[in-house]
Write a structure and sequence with these properties.
Length: 241
């Protein structure tokens, strides 16, 4: 069991959110109480990886955090000669991810790398997962990163992309934010925690609208893009090359 997330429970000078050791300690609790349907998303990403993985190819988990998606993909893989490459730029996350993965036996090779996904070598890929990762990349660098992913994918390969969305207009955005805050209240977060977390993350996580995501994926060349999950302002989609 992870520790309970109480990082923003006391009044403080709020700094920009980072995936540091303090966050690593409470991350599973934070995610479960903050992202509606997170367990469903993770388990389904594993099933999609199992469906689209190709023999003798690489599967990438970009922004792997503690390795939940890597584990889910590994559990669902039956194809021959596959390797999973998990990458994160948080040293604390990578260390814990390696320990986490060692706790589960598997014949599928996994390498967990500390690095910036903007510089990562991507090749011979049949599946690339980015589970709530793109939203932390500078907006002006997203198109180039997704293009590199597209170019690294084999024909028939997939990008599995989960993101927090911004509403298409202010009215819709406010509605989605209100629903999400209600979800967090129902999971025991106080008004102070909700407010301080929002302040901490607003400079770090810049969300796109669903329209922006779909247009960009289409422009890059993905032949099919489908939203398979959405709850409030959280969404997961599959894009097929």
């Amino acid at each position: 069991m992870s520790a309970k997330d109480s990082i923003y429970a006391s009044e403080q000078q709020v700094k920009d959110f980072t995936f540091d050791a303090k966050v690593v300690e409470v991350f599973p609790d934070m995610i479960e109480r903050s992202v509606p349907g997170y367990a469903t998303i993770v388990s389904t990403l594993g099933k999609l990886a199992g469906k689209y993985a190709q023999d003798n190819s690489n599967l990438y988990d970009l922004g792997c955090s503690l390795g939940a998606v890597t584990l889910s993909m590994r559990r669902n893989l039956n194809q021959a000669g596959c390797e999973i490459i998990a990458i994160d730029n948080s040293e604390a996350m990578v260390e814990r991810c390696r320990l986490h993965l060692e706790g589960f036996r598997s014949t599928v090779p996994v390498s967990v790398e500390l690095g910036d996904i903007l510089d990562a070598k991507l090749e011979n890929a049949s599946v690339v997962a980015m589970n709530f990762t793109l939203q932390f990349i500078e907006p002006e660098k997203r198109h180039a990163l997704l293009s590199r992913i597209y170019n690294a994918l084999k024909p028939g390969g997939v990008l599995l992309l989960s993101e927090k969305l911004r509403g298409e207009n202010q009215v819709v955005d406010d509605l989605l934010i209100d629903l999400h805050h209600d979800f967090k209240r129902a999971n025991g977060y106080s008004e102070l925690e909700i407010s301080q977390k929002r302040t901490a993350i607003e400079n770090v996580m810049r969300t796109d609208t669903l329209g922006t995501h779909l247009t960009r994926l289409n422009e890059i060349g993905f032949s099919q893009t489908q939203v398979w999950y959405q709850c409030f302002n959280f969404c997961s989609m599959v894009a097929i090359k």
